[in-house]
Write a structure and sequence with these properties.
39% of the residues lie in helices and 19% in strands. InterPro entries: ATP_grasp_subdomain_1, PEP-util_enz_mobile_dom, PEP_util_AS, Phosphohistidine_dom_sf, PPDK_AMP/ATP-bd, Pyruvate_phosphate_dikinase.
Length: 609
């Protein structure tokens, strides 16, 4: 725990009822307090302790959430605790929440113990109003930035807090772009965005029956309650059932001073992985978006550039990010998923967590971390389970098949999926329940598509990258996914997709998607057995009948000194680093005495490269 606690925070550290503390500054926690601070809050505190650039803020505990959900009211002491921590934050930042001439703005973000990407709510830019937007514009010297931030607040707040249909805001935004004859948000000018703010406020008034709140503290309090309530939304409950997460944990709420990626070309936002979450390979993986706020990346509403291109855009920030990524992976001893923002050349860390990965990546990463001495073999075994092994045994497409490729996107989550094209979650669920296999096709997915994603054999989007909502959720579920297939024009209203050359895929037409290559095919592509299963079976004289039992028996040999203890192939090991009883004389696959039949060697998982 950090020794550099803010003295003003220390003054309020003992607040609460009967010694119960509901609010923690980022300087007070650590990564071991996930039960109390949630994963996001605990890791923000941990990064603060490590001296990484984290915007100041505080976390409201899961205990406060549980009290609120149980009683329908927040704990009696919570408002005073939040006020005290807000006062400390304002003193640290040198400005007041929502003040007219130079406003402090904050984000209010959910953060449960277990990662639930996109399932709960976030509101950015809290503190903006008709008056403070003028002060923000003056301080930043950028009218466009200020009005863009304000329209984002009204859009997020209206949908998340006031329950306004998000499509109404999207339709108004699309109409504004059409009137301007532009296709992307960043081409709208300050005057366009100012008119859009007026339109958004009218939507709120009509749909919510009230004006958009102009008081900054009211905005923050309502957003905190909305995040608490988001724990029990249908999509959050569905995700918890899918991932076997207990329903009684509650979520923490993180209130963080805003940093802005939408301040111009020297600003931006991104998501990074310390290794490829799809394959496990080491390298620079992630997405970056100039002149944008964080939700733009995960929502996939604009196509990103690969993170490696940040080196050409802003080398100083890129080099600093690479150092931070190495620090975090060595500290957590695992693949880390990182959110960051660059504000006019200044890098800020907004989140880190142990990243979700595919089954193949889990194998490769576990062995690499053993090779690097970061974890031992016993820990590596705990990180790969039977369900992940079973995913590796799924069939793949036959490379020799004569089929028509109609597009290609980003290989976001591997596998081979074939099904009838559907363009909304309702149809995906309905057809799936009647026994049809379907592919859910969207421009981009959002958390409301979760039930359709579960029902589908695979997901195809025309926008987004490896860090978009569709990609992250699909990897977590072991679901085939291709994202960012830009050449495919998806028309959800007419329920069709148009490919280059005029090929039209109507709802009900069969398509095939390859999550390992990103290729999209018209019609059904034949499948062949997984190379993992065939190579895994090749070297054993006694092969169990199921992948899961094979894994249990072969991992028994990894734990023991002799292969015959678990695998049954009768080959003894001569060093600690062997797999499935294959004798090895060194650390790398090239040294394995049975390289041609060893699944770890032939699949590439043993190499530390």
């Amino acid at each position: 725990m950090s020794e550099n606690k803010d003295p003003q925070v220390a003054d309020v550290a003992e607040s609460g009822v009967a010694g119960v503390k509901f609010v923690y500054d980022f300087t007070e926690g650590n990564k071991d307090l996930k039960d109390l601070l949630g994963g996001k809050g605990a890791n923000l505190a941990e990064m603060t302790n490590l001296g990484l650039p984290v915007p100041p803020g505080f976390t409201i505990t899961t205990e406060a959430c549980k009290t609120y959900l149980d009683s329908g009211e927040e704990p009696a002491a919570l408002r005073d605790e939040v006020s005290a921590h807000l006062d400390a934050l304002e003193a640290k930042m040198g400005k007041k929440l929502g003040q007219a001439d130079d406003p402090l703005l904050v984000s209010v973000r959910s953060g449960a113990k277990f990662s639930m990407p996109g399932m709960m709510d976030t509101v950015l830019n809290i503190g903006l109003s008709d008056k403070s937007v003028q002060g923000l514009a003056k301080q930043a010297g950028d009218d466009r930035f200020a009005w863009d931030s304000y329209r984002r607040l009204i859009q997020m707040f209206g949908k998340t807090v006031l329950g306004v249909d998000g499509e109404l805001f999207e339709d108004a935004l699309e109409a504004a772009k059409a009137a301007k004859k532009v296709t992307i948000d960043t081409d709208l000018e300050a005057a366009d965005l100012k008119r859009l703010v007026t339109k958004f406020k009218k939507i709120v008034k009509t749909e919510a029956g009230r004006d958009f709140p102009q008081d900054a503290r009211e905005q923050m309090d309502l957003a905190i309650h909305a995040v608490f309530d988001s724990w029990n939304t249908d999509r959050a409950k569905l995700y918890r059932r899918q991932e076997r997460i207990p329903h009684d944990l509650g979520t923490a709420v993180n209130v963080c001073s805003m940093v802005f990626g939408n301040l111009g070309p020297d600003s931006g936002t991104g998501v990074a992985f310390t290794r490829d979450p799809a394959s496990g390979h080491q390298g620079v993986y992630g997405d970056y978006l100039q002149n944008a706020q964080g939700e733009d990346v995960v929502a996939g509403i604009r196509n990103t550039v690969p993170l490696a291109e940040l080196e050409q855009i802003d080398k100083k920030s890129y080099d600093q990010l690479m150092q931070i990524m190495a620090t975090l992976e060595n500290h957590y001893k695992d693949l880390c998923d990182i959110e960051f923002t660059i504000e006019r050349g200044q890098l800020w860390m907004l989140q880190t967590r142990v990243g979700k990965r595919t089954a193949g990546a889990a194998f490769r990463i576990a062995t690499q971390l053993v090779d690097q001495g970061l974890i031992d073999e016993a820990e590596a075994l705990q990180r790969v389970n039977g369900a992940q092994l079973a995913q590796l045994m799924f069939p793949r497409f036959d490379d020799q098949a004569k089929v028509e490729q109609i597009g290609r996107g980003i290989a976001a989550s591997p596998g081979a999926a074939v099904g009838k094209a559907v363009f909304d979650s309702y149809t995906a669920i309905k057809w799936s329940r009647s026994g049809e296999k379907v592919i859910l096709i969207r421009r981009e997915t959002n958390p409301d598509d979760l039930d359709g994603m579960i029902a589908a054999e695979g997901i195809l989007t025309s926008r987004g990258g490896k860090t978009s909502h569709a990609a992250v959720v699909a990897r977590g579920m072991g679901k085939t996914c291709v994202c960012g297939a830009e050449e495919l024009e998806v028309d959800t209203k007419r329920r069709r997709m148009t490919a280059p050359g005029g090929v039209v895929v109507e709802e009900g037409d069969v398509v095939s998607i390859d999550g390992s290559s990103g290729k999209v095919y018209l019609g059904e592509v034949p499948v062949v057995p997984s190379p993992w299963w065939s190579t895994s079976r090749a070297g054993c004289t006694r092969v169990p009948t199921t992948p899961t039992s094979w894994w249990r028996r072969c991992t028994g040999s990894w734990r023991s000194r002799t292969a015959s203890a678990g695998c049954g192939c009768g080959r003894t090991r001569t060093t600690r680093r062997t797999r499935c009883g294959r004798a090895a004389s060194g650390r790398r696959a090239s040294a394995c005495a049975a390289r041609s039949t060893c699944s770890w060697a032939t699949a590439g998982s043993w190499s530390s490269a």
